[in-house]
Task: structure prediction
Amino acid sequence: MKKECEIVQDLLFGYQDGTLHTASKELVEKHIETCEECKSVYNDMKKDESKNKDEQHQEIEYLKKVKKKMSKKNKLLIIIGVILTIVILLNIGIVVYYYKEAGKIEIYLEDNITQEQIENIKSSISNIDEKAKIEYYSKEDSLNQMKEKFSDNQNLLSGYGGENNPLPAFLVVDTTIENAKKMESTLSLPEIKKICGTFDSNPYLFILSEVMINLQNN
Ligand SMILES: [Zn+2]
Result:
């Protein structure tokens, strides 16, 4: 290799980077115009560089794809998280509602019941749960409630009333599920016709039946 070739090939990296001073740059340019060997060394260097750039580009594209996949994954995780949160909150709501509402019982009373016997039942209820809310509905109230339900067909019930009222008076007791169960099993007096409660049902079925009743009434 000629001495000038050696010098030029040493300078080629700098020439490619554009870091050479003008004099050296001109030397390289003039030389590779006439020297095939140095020209081919320079061309090989250029090819290598573009190959490197390609590889870098591919690497960047790959990283971009990975990032996109990760953000898709994150979105999926967020959606799953939101759904799980909704399901959990819904379940808590159902259980809270169940414990609040399923402790209600209805105590149907015999027709000939006296005021004293009613007070007696009320105090038995208070003995089990002194915080229990008790509401009394007379036979007349029962009939009026039924009339409201049959609002479109009032005349179906027009024959009933006064002496001719087949519906019972009843008490609505709002207590806890535990106490409702206790009341159902201990309040067995002849003047009580029947005790109805929903405390034994499954919370989900309970909510479902509440929803159905509301839909029917509306
Ligand atoms: Zn040369």
